[in-house]
């Protein structure tokens, strides 16, 4: 039993559980902001050469990407260079995808070809070296985890099983909107504040079989509220994934230390892993007591053991 609970021995459990939450809340956003494909002229291809955005020697297009989330710049370039083009960030060549069609082709149709893409330092740490389904290489691990995701979350049987949870989410969201309309008929509503916590609750129900109001995390010496749990599992890793380590742009400078950056990202990873471990322990108590909720996590635990 303790072996099942050991997070280090079962990265599959952590990867799937966290992937379920991340997919429900982040979807393609995380991929759109940070995902890139290693582009090599050495590889033979029948595809036409990609347009390149002009930049400076050594730096490439770095000075043109001053925003934390440079999607506006990418969109502007797409008007000139089309939905797919290449840029230079220091020593790296990056392929930018700017339409749903090409993103779907890369992530679905051609995933096996682009799965060995290079990740940033932050993403390498936060995904435990690609042990998250959306970031993993196309191998047996990826296929196994994806199969569990499809079977327990995205497949037709799982969709029917979780329909009640979705109906409750829709009903509650509509009630909130109507209540706001009555109190402030001319006011602007921040839809994210209403929907975000409800989608998180839906993700927890699909992954664990129930919503979580709070969880005791021994390693952190505290009890995380639902809002704090959302921050630890979702918000912090998403923000960390777009943090920039300048050494990513100049691999030949990897020997230069950047301790503050690495410690920050490692702390995010530690908090997320300990929170997930606490959720798994709580779930194992429910299993031991004879309660068997409809849960993706239980399926993965059984498969792993």
UniProtKB/TrEMBL annotation:
Gene Ontology terms, MF aspect: oxidoreductase activity
Localisation per UniProt entry: Membrane
Entries under InterPro entries matching the protein: Cyt_P450, Cyt_P450_E_grp-I, Cyt_P450_sf, KO_chloroplastic
Primary location group: membrane
Regions annotated as coiled coil: none
Record flagged with keyword Transferase: no
A Pfam family reported for this protein in Swiss-Prot or TrEMBL: p450
Domain of life: Eukaryota
Entry keyword set: Membrane, Oxidoreductase, Transmembrane, Transmembrane helix
GO cellular component, one term: membrane
Gene3D superfamilies attached to this UniProt entry: Cytochrome P450 (1.10.630.10)
Transmembrane region(s): 12-33
Kinase as UniProt keyword: no
SUPFAM superfamilies: Cytochrome P450
Membrane topology: Single-pass membrane protein
The family this protein is said to belong to: Belongs to the cytochrome P450 family.
Protein's UniProt name: Ent-kaurene oxidase
Species of provenance: Ilex paraguariensis
